[in-house]
Design brief:
heterodimer; A: alpha+beta; three-stranded antiparallel beta sheet; B: globular
Chain lengths: 359, 358
């Protein structure tokens, strides 16, 4: 039986369409069809000035939009050979880690919802709301931030942010324990996740996976550590990694990363230096001709962009690359042989976001 | 005169109970699961949201009645009715209090089981007639699941029938004067609860309608009041029957402290429905092969052993068999609860390592 799953389906995370060949409940082959959310971002960038395009970036990976802005301004800063003041770098890290937490909230909640558990997603949304409040305080927006700026960030910390953030950091580890108590040891969850959708370390590297999906396979590579940027070298954090590369390890990696993000934000708040948060740059950006590449570690893996400038007001070429596209390309390999129910289980554990896949 | 009173009471109960359950239970499930997931649930329509189910039903009634283009029209329209008729019929033999039964059948237990398995026909028809692949998968899943779980369910009902020595539900309640059967046969009660969840298509066995995989399962193509039939009347009507049967078989029926009355029965039904809602908020969903394995490799052998040992004890000690049966059942249920998790985890981890190596 050929089953067209998506693009309208409750759990294909947007508009992913999978053409499934089924033998009863057994999956014989999978053919992912992409492009339902293609908006032509790369071409749009060539027709806008640098800052005009900026506000579109957080529409790519709309659940953690700040990372796209961060990578973009880093590419421009490389071209212009400027460095933002240290306070700005710390603020960027704080915003980035808060974004990582909400990204993982969605990943865990949606994955468990795909497995049929209704409560965890509501609990993660409850706590996600608190982080969104913090981000709103910091940037003025809940999801589409426009916070990073070339040469710094838009705003300094607002009054009361540090206090509220520290309160949250103190409470949050207990909330993570709560999710784990509810679901991590549950026999049904274990039966649905242990040994499901195994990606071996070699396969993961061959596919070019990154982020938690790669680390769950036992390859502890994280750009924050292995290609350090911003002030990450000065911060102390661990890189959680799995061993078996199955759905359970991917889930567990994300949970542990949330704990690490809490640590990072705490340290960044402690070490926050004084000084300005941005610098004077010309109102019309005109980076010198040349090319630059910048990548950041988002909640879902490596987000990178390659920027070519011809010295004019607009980018000559902007190439965006995201990790979910790579994760989708593993599906035809890991899904066949599993049951129909694991289509949503395994795709959920890979944490796909179609806004970033179909640029 | 008595006959007419009886008839009126019968009609009122048989129609009102499923209809009321279709109104009360969806509301309870929303508010309670809302409470468990730390949110409010519907609280706008009427005092504390009590009228929300009414508003929903009104909305469903006003909706256009759509039959999909290439569906089998007759079966498509018939399916919800067939599925709905069974709980209405099954309710007629439940004893509500001393001498208050619509029909005191001497084969009551057989009747309940027979009509319980009728629902699956309606669901299969719905899945088949909709001409939709998701519906078909949902219908097939539900047949496999409900037929499999019928077996442990019946085995455990036989155990109760053996303890009582009768198939009449009135006699079952009568036999529980001194002690409820949950205290005599906790193992059978546990299996009854698990198999009941599967029979009712509730979490963690809600595969036939698994909304994250099959969109809506067998009811994907249904809309308006036909959907309302499945969602409200069939699901919760069956849940009511299941809880009424469970309360009668294991929890002493209408018996209770002070005086036996229908109130006690309703209270016990609410407790069992609370268990259903509790499971709904707590568990993820099983996969079809795990579901079948669990029925055929765990529940059915367990029930067969329980049945055999109980039967043996009844033959060996015909005068005083309750204490040894209770002792056996308590020991085995505690062993089951203690051993099940470690054994399962071990086998899962074994499978995981094998898969990771491959």
């Amino acid at each position: 039986m050929v089953l067209n799953m998506g693009p309208q389906h409750p759990s294909t995370h947007g508009v992913l369409r999978l053409v499934l060949h089924l033998d009863g409940e057994l999956i014989v082959s999978v053919d992912p069809q992409l492009g339902y959310l293609h908006r032509g971002f790369e071409k749009l960038a060539e027709n806008r000035t640098y800052m005009q395009f900026f506000s579109m970036l957080s529409r790519l990976d709309y659940l953690a939009g700040y990372f796209m802005e961060w990578a973009y301004v880093r590419a421009i800063e490389d071209l212009m050979e400027i460095e933002p003041p240290p306070r700005a770098e710390y603020l960027r890290v704080i915003a980035g880690e808060l974004n990582r937490i909400i990204s993982h909230h969605m990943a865990i909640g949606d994955y468990l919802l795909n497995l049929g558990a209704v409560t965890p997603v509501l609990w993660t949304f409850r706590d996600r709301e608190e982080v969104l409040d913090l981000l709103e305080l910091l940037t003025g927006q809940r999801m589409m931030y426009n916070f990073a700026r070339v040469g710094g960030v838009r705003y300094d910390l607002p009054d009361g942010f540090e206090e509220q953030c520290r309160k949250f950091l103190k409470r949050f580890p207990a909330m993570i324990d709560e999710y784990e108590q509810l679901i991590t040891g549950n026999e049904i969850f274990l039966a649905r996740s242990l040994g499901m959708g195994v990606i071996s370390p070699e396969q993961a590297l061959d596919f070019g996976l990154s982020g938690p999906n790669l680390r769950a396979s036992g390859v502890p590579v994280d750009l924050r550590r292995h290609n350090p940027y911003s002030v990450y070298p000065e911060l102390d954090f661990e890189i959680p990694a799995g061993a078996n590369g199955d759905s359970f390890d991917r889930y567990k990696c994300r949970v542990e990363e949330m704990r690490q993000s809490v640590r990072i934000i705490g340290q960044a708040l402690d070490a926050l230096p004084g000084g300005p948060v941005n610098m004077r740059i010309p109102p019309m950006l005109r980076p010198p001709a040349g090319e630059s590449f910048a990548a950041v570690e988002t909640g879902r893996g490596e987000w990178s962009n390659y920027l070519v400038s011809d010295g004019s007001l607009r980018p000559f070429r902007l190439k965006l690359r995201d990790s979910c596209f790579v994760a989708i390309s593993t599906l035809p390999k890991i899904l066949p042989g599993n049951k129909m129910a694991d289509v949503v289980g395994i795709t959920g554990s890979l944490d796909l976001i179609m806004g970033a896949v179909d640029r | 005169m008595a006959f007419f009173e009886h008839l009126i009471a019968a009609v009122v109960i048989a129609v009102a109970a499923p209809a009321l359950s279709a109104i009360v239970f969806p509301f309870a499930v929303r508010r309670l699961s809302g409470f468990m997931s730390d949110r409010l649930g519907p609280n706008r329509v009427g005092p504390a949201g009590l009228l929300q189910p009414m508003a929903d039903f009104l909305k469903l009634l006003l909706k256009e009645d759509i039959t999909p283009d290439r569906s089998d029209r007759l079966l498509f329209m018939l399916a919800p009715v067939i599925a709905f008729i069974t709980p209405v019929l099954a309710i007629s033999i439940i004893p509500f209090s001393q001498g208050f039964t619509i029909a005191n059948l001497n084969v009551g237990l057989v009747y309940v089981v027979a009509f319980g398995s009728f629902t699956v026909l309606g669901i299969l028809l719905a899945g088949w007639a909709s001409h939709n692949k998701y519906s078909l998968l949902g219908g097939l899943r539900s047949v496999a699941q409900m037929v499999s779980y019928e077996v442990p369910m019946i085995l455990n009902i036989i155990i109760i029938a053996m303890l009582v020595g009768s198939l009449s539900l009135n006699n079952v309640v009568g036999a529980q004067g001194r002690v409820w059967f949950i205290a005599v046969q906790p193992l059978a009660f546990v299996v009854f609860i698990i198999a009941g969840m599967a029979e009712l298509n509730r979490t963690p066995f809600d595969l036939p309608e698994a909304e994250s995989e099959l969109v809506g399962g067998y009811m994907t193509e249904y809309g308006g009041m036909r959907f309302g039939f499945f969602y409200g009347l069939v699901e919760w009507g069956n849940a009511t029957i299941w809880s009424l049967t469970g309360a009668t078989l294991f929890l002493g029926g209408w018996r209770g402290p002070f005086a036996g009355s229908p109130g006690w029965l309703i209270l016990k039904v609410l407790v069992l429905v609370f268990v259903v809602i509790w499971f709904f908020s707590t568990f993820p969903r099983l996969q079809i092969d795990q579901l079948m394995n669990f029925a055929w490799k765990v529940l059915i052998p367990l029930s067969l052993v329980n049945l055999g040992v109980t039967g043996l004890l009844i033959i060996l000690l015909p005068n005083n068999f309750l204490p040894p049966v209770a002792a056996f059942s308590w020991v085995s249920v505690i062993a089951f609860i203690l051993l099940f998790q470690p054994v399962l985890k071990k086998s899962l981890i074994h499978k995981r390592l094998r898969r990771a190596a491959a």
